User: Which sequence fits this backbone?
C-alpha cells in the first residue's frame, strides 16, 4: 500500500495573491474571509485531475506570507482559523487532501520573539544558541542596515 501523497496530483495556490489580499497586513483590522474565494475553484481544480491542494503561505504575516508573525492563526487578510477549517471540511467532503505551506526555519520582524530581541537586546532569552548573533545587522527599507546591538 502506498502513501496517499504518492498517488496525489497537487494544485498549488498562493492565497494572498489568488484572493486579492492587501500587500501589507493591518494587524488591527478585522479578519476578511477572502479564503472563501477558493470554493469557486474547487470544481475546476478537480476537473484538471488534482485531488490535493497545496495552500500557502497562510499564517498571520506582515506582507508576503513567508514573514510569519504568528503560526497559530490564519492571516487576517484571508479570514480566520474557522474560515480555513470550513474550507478543509469541504475539501475532505469532496475527497480532496489539503496540505498547508509553512516556513518554520525563519520568521518575520513582527514575530513576538524577534520583537523581544529588538526591544530587550542582550537580555532577551531568544537569541540564545546563535540564532541572532551579537552584532547582527538587519537591512532597513532605505537600504541601510541596523544592528540589534554592538559587538
Assistant:
Amino acid at each position: 500500500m502506498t502513501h496517499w501523497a504518492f498517488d496525489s496530483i497537487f494544485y498549488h495556490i498562493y492565497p494572498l495573491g489568488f484572493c486579492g489580499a492587501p500587500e501589507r497586513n493591518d494587524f488591527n483590522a478585522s479578519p476578511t474571509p477572502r479564503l472563501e474565494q477558493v470554493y469557486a475553484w474547487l470544481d475546476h481544480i478537480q476537473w484538471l485531475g488534482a485531488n490535493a491542494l497545496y495552500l500557502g503561505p497562510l499564517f498571520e504575516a506582515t506582507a508576503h506570507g513567508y514573514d510569519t508573525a504568528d503560526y497559530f492563526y490564519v492571516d487576517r487578510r484571508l479570514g480566520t482559523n474557522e474560515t480555513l477549517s470550513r474550507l478543509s471540511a469541504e475539501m475532505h467532503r469532496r475527497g480532496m487532501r489539503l496540505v498547508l505551506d509553512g516556513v518554520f526555519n525563519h520568521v518575520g520582524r513582527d514575530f513576538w520573539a524577534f520583537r523581544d530581541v529588538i526591544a530587550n537586546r542582550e537580555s532577551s532569552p531568544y537569541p540564545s544558541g546563535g540564532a541572532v548573533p551579537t552584532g547582527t545587522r538587519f537591512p532597513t527599507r532605505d537600504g541601510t542596515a541596523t544592528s540589534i546591538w554592538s559587538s
Q: What stands out?
A: The chain has a mean pLDDT of 87. Helices lie at 15-18, 39-47, 81-93, 112-120.
